[in-house]
Amino acid sequence: MNLWQITIGLCVFSGLLISCAAGASRSNTPTAAAAAQPAAKPAAPAPMPVAQAPQPATKPAVRPGSKNTDRAEVLMLGPNRFEGHVYDLIYSYLLESGIYLELDDHDRLPEELPWDLSQYKVIIVDKSLPVVEYAGFKEHLDRYAAQGGTVIYHTPPAETNWKANDPEMYEVYNKVVAAGVKLQNPAFLKRNAARPDRDVILSSTARQTTVPGLVGWYRIGNDVAFMHFEGILKTAELYNRPDLRDFVLWMLDDIVRTHGDKPLPVFGGHLVDQFQKLGRQDYYERCMKSLRPASMLVDRVEFTRRTNPAVACETVSGLGDFMALAKHAPDPNEYYQPLVDMMKLCHDALFEPTTQLWAHGGTRGGEPTPAWSRGYGWMLIGLVGIIENLPKDHPDYPLMVQYLEETTNGLSRYQDATGLWHCIVDDPNTRLEASGTAMILRSYCHAWRAGVCRTPQVKAMLTKAWYGLKTHTVGGRTFSFLWGQGATHDKSAYAVNPSSGTPYLAPLAGPEYVITFGPLVP
């Protein structure tokens, strides 16, 4: 079933399933079967100065890449702002794999070809750039190639289908890797991690609130937008940015204007306290309209117990939001038990004791699908939301905490050295996946502040995760974000979804880490 097409009215209890922006994953070394796509088309660039060709001269032979190994190994000559998706595809592949790409202090590509090319192992040139026509330009690159450097000329296709696999762009990437560049280059990761947390979070938030198409995405009332609103509001409070708070309020007003009296989605449940804090009783009341009668939840539990339908991590994500809403109900206790019971049924269907991981989808007693990292994020949002709001004296509270502690062992075992988790959590041959990592980090920070899973192991895991997200955040986007993936037993399906960078992840996870532990880099 296509989760994007499942309405909130079908979530796990009242026939209500939360729609989700799901994503698949990608390995450190993508294959030609995979492809990338941007989260949203960037704004059209301003006219760019034409690079001037260097003048021919005699230089001593220095094998490219033979020195300065702690500096950029790849130079990609092209526009600083991507007018077409073709640049974004190649750029995404390189940055996801931690390849040290030449960027200025503002994370922009160089506009001109430098004279000294000896530090680079690879130079990528778009044949459509006017500078390619200069004889001196070609002579300079020919000399570089004669000394052992790799020059990759490519021609952007007239039309790029960025929602499909693009073998031509992967051919460019594969040539870069074949030249012997370092993947997950420690010097490049260190460069990115050295930036203050505040700058990383705010640069991404700035893109998140200005990228064309994002407003339209929020305007349709997409449920996942409400999770991102939480991150923007926390960023606004953390860094005293009332303009960001006002953006969220404007977007909510716009959604109300667009959808009339429609209740805010269940995903708004975790914002009810924020709405009260902001004095927006109107939004608070719209959220509360999403809370269905407790009897419907009880009926849904009984139906699930009796028929044992397939469940997926995405279907569990709404449990925490229902719990947050139930806390404000006239009688919260009538909601607590059916929510906990549904969590038990879903955990029984998805938890694998051997790996201590949740499968992406499955039935109780059936064959599970792989453990998908972003699905993991959805599952944690549901479980941690229950733990945050369930009274500690509830008889099942210890069991909910036990579920979280058990899966913590599995997650910490499979966390990659970069700090990210792989698309399929327990398969290191699948691609690294930043969106799942951000959601995992966000949820465990909530759990920590709720007083559970407070161990040195968990803190180290979360610090490593935030470091990994920072190192893969460049120019206000985190690489890589992978697109929607329904639960399936076919592992290859998780490997071929396109990817790109997205501005959503640093504002989602970064403020949570800083609020919980303080910044890695002030």
Number of domains: 2
Number of helices: 19
Write down the overall geometry: globular
Mean pLDDT: 83
Strand percentage, roughly? 5-15%
Structural class: mainly alpha
CATH class of the largest domain: Mainly Alpha
Q: Under the CATH scheme, which architecture of the largest domain would be assigned?
A: Alpha/alpha barrel
CATH fold-level assignment of the largest domain: Glycosyltransferase
Radius of gyration: 24 Å
- Give the biggest beta sheet: 3 strands, parallel
Q: pLDDT below 50 for ≥5 consecutive residues: which ranges?
A: 1-61
- Assembly state here? single chain
Secondary-structure topology with pairs:
Blueprint: E1 74-77, H1 85-96, E2 122-126, H2 135-146, E3 150-154, H3 167-178, H4 186-193, H5 197-208, H6 214-219, H7 225-238, H8 242-259, H9 272-277, H10 281-288, H11 294-307, E4 311-312, H12 313-316, H13 318-326, H14 333-350, E5 351-352, E6 357-358, E7 361-362, H15 373-389, H16 397-414, E8 421-422, E9 432-433, H17 434-449, H18 456-471, E10 473-474, E11 477-482, E12 499-502, H19 505-517
Helix pairs in contact: 1-3, 4-18, 5-19, 7-8, 7-19, 11-14, 13-14, 13-15, 15-16, 15-17, 17-18, 17-19, 18-19
Structure in words:
- The protein has two domains: 3-26 and 201-517, Glycosyltransferase; 74-183.
- 45% of the residues lie in helices and 7% in strands.
- It contains 19 helices and twelve strands.
- The chain has a three-stranded parallel sheet, with helices on both faces. It has a three-stranded antiparallel sheet with strand order 10-11-12. A two-stranded antiparallel ribbon has the order 4-7.
- The longest helix is centred in the middle third of the chain and has 18 residues, at 242-259.
- The chain is globular, with a radius of gyration of 24 Å.
